[in-house]
Amino acid sequence: MKLDTKQFEAKMQKSIEAYKNELDTVRAGRANPNILSRVMVDYYGTPTPVNQIGSVSCPDARTIVIQPWDSTTLKGIEKAILASDIGITPANDGKVIRLSFPQLTEDRRKELKKQVSKLGEDAKVAIRNIRRDAIDAAKDMKKNNEMTEDEQKASEKSVQDLTDKYIKEIDVITASKEKEIMEI
User: Fold this and answer.
1) Is 94 exposed, middle or buried (0-12, 13-18, 19+ CB in 10 A)?
2) Nearest 5°: CA angle at 111, between 108 and 113?
């Protein structure tokens, strides 16, 4: 009986998705509404994502416009953006909030590239931890006489192949994001 790798593959896919979501929040000089995904506004005592209390749009490549459905929330949205880690000062004109993304300096690009590399390494560590869990499960099955030594080796090889596939995918995603940062 060989180890069922489906559950471990599902965990690896979730790690990739989490990594992609994390990359969406990295400010790369181009306006991206996803940068606001972790900004929570105190809306009548409840922390609420910005995109749930107004429309978020990108009229051009360097601007995000937030138009709240309730104009009384403008100050709250402005406070939440200032308190967040996105590093942009909002402009409030009484009806909408504008976020203008400045041109990135060379130093800031290098800093962002390092940040993306670190996030990539963290994602690889998560994949490797899943691999370790899968190999441990195969060893336990062997110890409990649920599989032969050959089946254990085959299971470990299939887990390693999965790991290599997902590590390669992380490398591709990281390289693409780094290229995007350096081209802007």
Assistant:
1) exposed
2) 110
Measured CA to CA, the distance from residue 150 to residue 142 in angstroms comes to 10
What is the distance, to the nearest Å, from the Cα of residue 164 to the centroid of all Cα atoms in its chain? 20
* Full pLDDT tens readout for the chain, 184 residues: 677 788 888 999 999 999 888 887 776 666 777 777 778 888 888 888 888 888 888 888 778 888 888 888 888 888 888 887 777 788 888 888 888 877 777 887 888 888 889 999 999 999 999 999 999 988 888 888 888 888 888 888 999 999 999 999 999 999 888 887 777 6
DSSP one-letter string for 72-124: GGHHHHHHHHHHSSS----EE-SS-EEEEPPPPPHHHHHHHHHHHHHHHHHHH
